[in-house]
From TrEMBL:
Record field: compositional bias (Acidic residues): 26-57
Family matches, as InterPro entries: DUF1541
DUF1541 domain ranges (all copies): 97-148, 161-211
Superkingdom classification of source: Bacteria
Stretches for region Disordered: 23-86
Key words of the record: Signal
Protein name in the entry: DUF1541 domain-containing protein
Annotated signal peptide: 1-21
Length: 218
């Protein structure tokens, strides 16, 4: 009678071992699938992150272009050629009137690397200014350029950055009569020029370019 009891116990033990082994194999088979699913989700997240990064860079580039367009919107590149009465002609400019020069450091994209004819050269203090147009709209920041003689009632002494003055210039719509803050000031020679822009526009008597924006034509 003792031997059958041992057989029953052995049979139960084997059955238990087989069930445990089966459960173990089931877990092993399930885990890789879970890992694969998790990996796929992580990969999708990474791809979405990469796409978002690309879009951010593209948007940033477009915003920069929009800012450039807004900055120069309403800019009248040509002028009548009239200059303030008290603006002194340069006695010995680097680029003489009638000579050619290359615009190598342009303050507007359509002026970059084009050849210009010098039609006027003047010694003065030149400023970059920020102002709110009298016609409304967004504030214009760091406009290039305004000469000292285009500021109203400021005397002969150059202004310092941070000072304010009323503009008596019409380079851009809404500029004349606006209150401007001086952003930078430099004593130099400024030039009035004729040129053909990169988009084919014939520009006459453009005011102003500074000496540092020009290079000799080779």
């Amino acid at each position: 009678m003792k031997k059958p009891k041992k057989s029953i116990i052995l049979t139960v033990s084997l059955g238990t071992a087989i069930m445990l082994a089966a459960c173990g194999n089931g877990d092993d088979e399930t885990d890789p699938e879970m890992d694969m699913d998790t990996g796929s989700e992580d990969s999708m997240d990474d791809m979405e992150d990469d796409d978002t990064g690309d879009m951010d860079m593209e948007d940033h580039g477009m915003n920069d272009m929009d800012m450039d367009d807004d900055m120069h919107e309403g800019h009248d590149m040509s002028s009548s050629g009239e200059v303030p009465e008290d603006l002194e002609e340069a006695e010995s400019p680097t680029f003489e009137v009638g000579s050619q020069a290359l615009i190598t450091d342009a303050h507007m994209p359509e002026m970059e690397d084009v050849e210009a004819t010098i039609v006027g050269a003047y010694d003065t203090t030149v400023y970059t200014v920020s102002y709110t147009p009298t016609t409304g709209g967004d504030r214009v920041e760091d406009h290039e350029w305004v000469v000292h003689e285009e500021l109203e009632d400021v005397g002969e002494e150059p202004l310092e950055p941070g000072e304010e003055a009323t503009l008596n210039a019409s380079h851009m719509e809404g500029m004349e009569g606006a209150t401007a803050e001086i952003d930078s000031a430099e004593e130099t020679t400024v030039y009035m020029i004729d040129f053909t822009s990169t988009d084919g526009e014939e520009v006459e008597n453009h005011k102003w370019v500074t000496e540092s924006e020009l290079s000799p034509v080779e």
